[in-house]
Structure formats: structure tokens, C-alpha cells
Amino acid sequence: MSSLQHFEALAGSLKLPGEAVIDGTLRASISGKTFPNVGPRDGRILNRVAECEEADVDVAVKAARRAFDEGHWRNLHYRDKKRVLFRLADIMEREAENLALLESLDVGKPITNALKGDVPGAIKCLRYYAEALDKVYGEVAPFTPDRFSFVEHDPLGVIGTIVPWNFPLLMAMWKVAPALAMGNSVVLKPAEQSPLTALKLGELALEAGLPPGVLNVVPGFGAGAGKALALHMDVDMIAFTGSGPVGKLLMQYSGQSNLKRVSLELGGKSPHIIFADCPDLGRAAHEAAWGIFYNSGQVCTAGSRLLVADSIADEFLEKLHAVAQRIKAGDPLEPATRSGAMASEAQMKTALKYIETGKREGSTLTLGGNRTRADTGGFYVEPTIFDAVPPTATLAREEVFGPVLAITHFSEPDEAIRIANDTNYGLAAGLWTRDITLAHRTARAIKAGLVWINGWDSCDITMPFGGFKQSGFGRDRSLHALEKYADLKSVSITL
After folding, report:
1. Which of 19, 51, 192, 265 is catalytic?
2. Do 238 and 331 fall into the same domain?
3. Residue 300 annotated among the catalytic residues of the structure
């Protein structure tokens, strides 16, 4: 049996989760409604999933509040919290192949990427926060002979997490793990395009011994489950990764309800700058290609704006095209595939619409630009490159969230910095140079939450992740993420 046949057989035998996880049980929606979960690999319906709405969310939030107030998780000794979270990580490791397959089927992600990247990344994230939960220390304030004062971190309560479809399990874990580590209860709402791994996570958490109500999973649509969660008066915080328009709605919902906290990781239009003294054009070309075409371009930090110095443009672009031409969309369940399907038909159509816009506005299409593998019924788009894209063009200003690269040329470093900052977004940026002074000056000048020098996406769970400007606020990853799921409480004792 070939590797492809192995995963096809496993897919045929795997029970796909479709019920909500609420208060320790698997449940249908209260209304009985379900929605079709379409697989982007071939456009077929994978299964039907419970469509949770306001009533379901209310039950889940009440279960989360009761669990928090009863304190079985919140007040559990940190050694025991660690034990449960590490047990969950071990169970996820046991189920790694199944989780990877669920992710691949759900969003068209290459099975190899899911097996080697997404699932291990989620497990490492969980273990990181399990180990870190007793490393968040309070403070002893200045004291006098008649008073002793200290500051402690108090968990917020019920955390609503709304996560995207591009990295469903990993993005969920970036929020769920630190929220649980700080003693909160969580209601997780996965994207309707990608519910499978979130639902499986809810089941595995119960197996690991997480008390009922501490982690609830409510699949459904944004206008139903997502809005209800954001407006609920007993939710203390919404942690969201997704689009800017939805992020703005969540802030409105916070004001309309109980002024719940909102943490937003939104879009990006990340500049990737290749200065004239780039130390390794071949490596930079490889990083630039995969920086936009990885995960079919469906990455919030994708280096979708490539800024190249005029003096090296011809040589660099030749190397870039050589890399990009080798990136072919293939069957997500074939282990040799490195570029799979787009997550949905709607997202494929969005990418193709932006490609047509680029042509219409006069940018030079140098590679790709078409749907591919249409005969499979799946949603695939070729890696696409536009050259000579003006900084004012739509492709240079709007987030495509697809495998579309916009190349702009510059003559001087200050021009590159100006172009890089001329955007509403500020999530990530990258630059290549031998000059440490130029590297440091550019990194300081660029308005972005992450800046990579002589590499792309070159950091890990220990570094904060989040943006400036309309890329949102609040940070995932690192120890800083723990603190956003807690409040500071000052306590003073009169002696």
C-alpha cells in the first residue's frame, strides 16, 4: 500500500466528529440544525456538523461559568493542572496522525505539513504553557511597618475564543492553552470551514481529565454562534484571530454588552525587503517564495509584498521564479505534496478575483494566475507572481489571503521603508542585508509586531505574536500571552 493509499484508507475509516462539546458531553445543536462540512480536496461533503446558535452558546457559557465558579480547575494545585495538560499533550501525540488527517481533509492542507508542522506545533504549545503556568509570579509592593502589599494575577473567568480556518488546531491552541493554564474556562468557536480538529480537541480534553465545562466547543457560523458568544453578558474576554471587519464587529459587541476584553490578531500585508547587499540571493529567493506560497498563501504573516532593490532585481527574480515554478499544487493526502488546496471554494474565488484585478490594473503577470486541478472538484490556485506592482495598486494594499505575490522595486533603503510602512496593517516584515546598521535601523523604523532579519518566520513559541495598526492588538505565544488571560489584583494587609 502506498502512502497515499494509507491516508485514503485511514480517511475512509476515521469517524469524523460533528457534535458540539458542552459541559463534558457530546451534543447535537438544540435546534437540531446541522451544516455541511465541505472538503476542499475534492469539493465533497465530509460530514454534517452541529450548527450551534445563541441557545447553544448560552448553555456552553453557563457551563463554563459554573465550572469556573466551582473552582475545580481554577483552584487546582499547579502541579495537578500541569499533570492534566501534559496528559492532554500525550493523548494528542498518540492521536497525531488522526489529527493531521482531520486537518488535511478539512482545509486542504498537505498531510506532511499537518504531520510535521501544525499538529506538533499545537502539542509543543500546550506543553510550553503547561510548563509555564507556575512561572507567572506576583509582586511584592513597597511596604511599611504597618502594611504588607502584594499583586497577584487573577484569572478572568470565561474566555470566548474564535479561531480561523487556515491553521485551525494551532491557532486554537495558541489561545486555549494559555487561557486554561491561567485557570480560566473556555468556550471555543472554530471557523465553520474547519470544525473537525477543534471538536476532536474537545473530546480529547475530556479523556485527559479536564473537568466538565472547562473547555466547550461550539461549531457554527459567525452570525450565529460567534455573535452570540461576543454579545454574551457572562463572557469576560473574546480572543480572536481573523479578518479586520469581524474584529471591528467584536469591539462593537463588547461595547454593546459587558465591555468584555477583546484581543485581536487580524490581517496583514507584510513587506519582505531584499536590499542590494542581500547576503544570499538564493536563500532569500527560497524564503520569499515559501513566505507567500506556504499553505497556499493562507497565512496572516504571508510575505505578500516583495520589495526588491533595482540593482539586483533581475538576478533575484530569476532565482525566485526558479523556486516558485517547482511549487505545484497537489493532492493533500499525497505525502510528497507541498502545496495543497485552498480552504474553501469562496476563498479560491476571492484569490482568482484579485488575480483578475491585478491584470486589469496593469501589473505584469509573470507566473501562474489560474485555477488548477479543477477536474478533481477541489479548490486549487497556482502560485502566482505579479511584477512591477505600484505601491498604490490593489494587490499591494489589500490582503488576498491566497498564493499571490506582488513585487515592487525600489532604489534606496529609505524608499523601501516608506513603501513598507504605507499600509493599514502592521503584523510582520522581513529584510535581507549584510549591513547591521541598516538592519537595525530598518527594524526599528518598520511598524510591525514581528520583524525578521535574513530569514522569514524565524521565531517560535517563546516570542510574542501580534501586530500594530489594523493588524490588531494583544499577543499570542510567549509568557506575555499568559498575562492577558488574567487581571492584576492588588492586595494590602494592614498589620
Report:
1. 265
2. no
3. yes
